[in-house]
Amino acid sequence: MTTQNDVYVIGVGMHPFMRDAPSLRDMYFTAASAALKDAGIRFQDIGYLYNGYIGGTFLEGITFAKDLGLTNVPIVHVENASATGSCAFREAVNAVRGGHCEAAMAVGFDDMMKFSRSRAMAQMGDGPKIDSTILPAAFFAMWAVRRMHDHGTSVETYAKIAAKNWNHARHNPMAQRQAAQEVTAAEILAAPEVSYPHTTKMACAAGGGAAAAIVATKEVAERLAGGRPMVRVAASQMKSEHYTPGHVFLGAVIGPEDLTRVTTEAVYQEAGVGPTDVDLVHVHDAFPIEELMYTELMGFAEPGEGDRLVANGDTSIGGRIPFSTDGGLTARGHPGGPTGLAQIWDSVQQLRGESGVRQVKGARNALVHMMGAGSICVMHLLQRDGDI
Question: Residue 118's pLDDT is what?
Answer without folding.
Answer: 44
